[in-house]
Amino acid sequence: MPPSHDQNAGATHIRKRSDESGGQKRDLSYPPLPQPLTVPVYDNHTHLEIEDGEEGLDYREHLDRASSVGIRGVVQVGNDVATSRWSAEIASREPRVLAAVALHPNEAPKLAAAGELHEALAVIDELAARPRVRAVGETGLDWFRLPDDDTRDAARAAQLESFEAHIEIAKKHNLALQIHDRDAHDDVVATLKRVGAPERTVFHCFSGGPELATVCAENGWYMSFAGTVTFKNAQALRDALIQAPRSLIMVETDAPFLTPSPFRGRPNSPYLIPHTLRSMAETLGTDVGMLAAQITSTTELVYGTWESDPIRIEA
């Protein structure tokens, strides 16, 4: 069973990053601080609950480093009941943090198999009513990690059921929707159109090419770019960035994962946003400050300001 809300409330981390290095030794040192931004931005998707790196930074140290280089605030994202509770709790007492709550697509099959999916979704619905929870996410579809056995169809069905339920929760509470889309572009788009996308729908860690960027633009869906846009082999992502309307672009870390170049493979943190933002500005042939100002305005349009309560739909 996941830890209870009370057990997590004072914790600086909930879990440690799993080893996905394929047995290769990772450099676990955090990269140096980048040159500060002159115009502040937000990291609209991060996982401060995941411990990574040899220094063992807690969430306050990550936020302090981020503040020192011009990161005004973050959206802390839950992946299951425990991390969603933790995210909502941290946001309630840390002014630099807003929360997103959800069950990750890869959690849905496990919960469904245990007969606990509906109960877990009810907890997410309850957490979504809290004032500093501003998004439902990350939710969506992940066809990359589907099992290759006779449980495959059930896993797909559980992910779809969970995704549809999260869409309805976001609309019920007038919250943004943060989408996890891995190897599932067509099915994600089809589900959004069939169920009805929330007014503010964000493709977190945008992973499509210009074609998906065009679909997002046509539907008014936001595209959040992570450190992957800096990778040498990610030209399709950069082409998508160029294709995307500036008013629909945001930036994120997905920390501690997807550390931007030139520090790929090392622990990621919100303070490394300037590397991604500067790479984006170079790709777009625009001034970093102008891009930062546009992204900041867009981020506040999607999530509200970090200082105020959100606009809620009256029951």
Description:
The structure is a single chain. Helix content is 39%, strand content 16%. It is α/β, with parallel strands linked by helices and 315 residues long. It has a single domain (56-303), classed as TIM Barrel, CATH 3.20.20.140. 47% of the residues are buried.
CATH class: Alpha Beta
How many strand segments?
A: 10
Give the CA-based shape.
Answer: globular
- Return the CATH topology: TIM Barrel
Q: Mean pLDDT, nearest integer?
A: 93
Give me the CATH architecture, please.
Alpha-Beta Barrel
Helix content: 25-40%
CATH superfamily: Metal-dependent hydrolases
Tell me the fraction of residues in β-strands, as a range.
Answer: 15-25%
Question: Rg to the nearest angstrom?
Answer: 18 Å
Distance between the termini: 33 Å
Query: Largest beta sheet: what is the strand line-up?
Result: 2-4-5-6-7-8-9-10
Class from helix and strand fractions = alpha/beta
Give the helices and strands, then pairings.
Blueprint: H1 5-8, E1 15-16, E2 41-46, E3 50-51, H2 59-68, E4 71-77, H3 81-93, E5 97-101, H4 108-113, H5 117-127, E6 133-142, H6 152-173, E7 176-182, H7 185-195, E8 201-203, H8 210-219, E9 222-225, H9 235-243, E10 249-251, H10 273-284, H11 288-303
Parallel strand pairs: 1-3, 2-4, 4-5, 5-6, 6-7, 7-8, 8-9, 9-10
Helix pairs in contact: 3-5, 5-6, 8-9
State the main characteristics:
315 residues; alpha/beta; TIM Barrel; disordered N terminus
